[in-house]
Structure prediction request, 206 residues.
Amino acid sequence: MAKVLLPVGDAAEVMDTLYAYYRLKEGGYEVVVAGPEARQYQMVLHEIPPGWDITRETAGYHIQATLAFRDIDPVQFVGAFLTGGRAPEYIRYDQHLMATLKSFFEVGKPVCSVCHGAELVAAADVIRDRRIATVPKCQIDVEAVGASFVNEGLVRDGNLVSGRTWHDQHLYMPVFVAMLDEFCGVSKTAPPVAQALGGASKSKKK
Prediction:
């Protein structure tokens, strides 16, 4: 089963993270959660309440990272999903993670970024002269490294697909999964779970 890297840290956004985690598993990919250390991380919920100008943060679910950034072997992965929340603000300083992302872009592996995940590709300096979608509050981050900020729910530029927030998941996740399938040379007529159930039904009929 092909592996997709999902870097996290404390304060990764729950909806950004978990939807992608399970959608990729549904698509037949092994999702490897990595962090500064191989441990459990506290995720958060981000929302802008009525009348507020900034995001309110509340505690959400936990997620277990089974791999530390320093132990990542980029060759073992076919792509990466970069989640949002506040985690990217500090994990972007990890040079092992930055080196991994640079290697993905060097060979054109599919990468998906949502919300503050844009801070990771900006820090890795892999989006110069590219278009990228993110939340407006990250516009300065991407433009400072020579990228073009796009306030849309789906933007694809080469091996990078991006969206603003989890509200755009129905737009960017199908494209990301299709990019992974193409990169891996996979042809799917039905989701792996449906294929497995169909096979089980046929076996019973025999």
Observations:
- The mean pLDDT is 92.
- DSSP finds seven helices and eleven strands in the chain.
- Residues 169-184 form the longest helix (16 residues).
- The helical segments are 14-26, 87-91, 95-107, 118-123, 139-143, 169-184, 192-205.
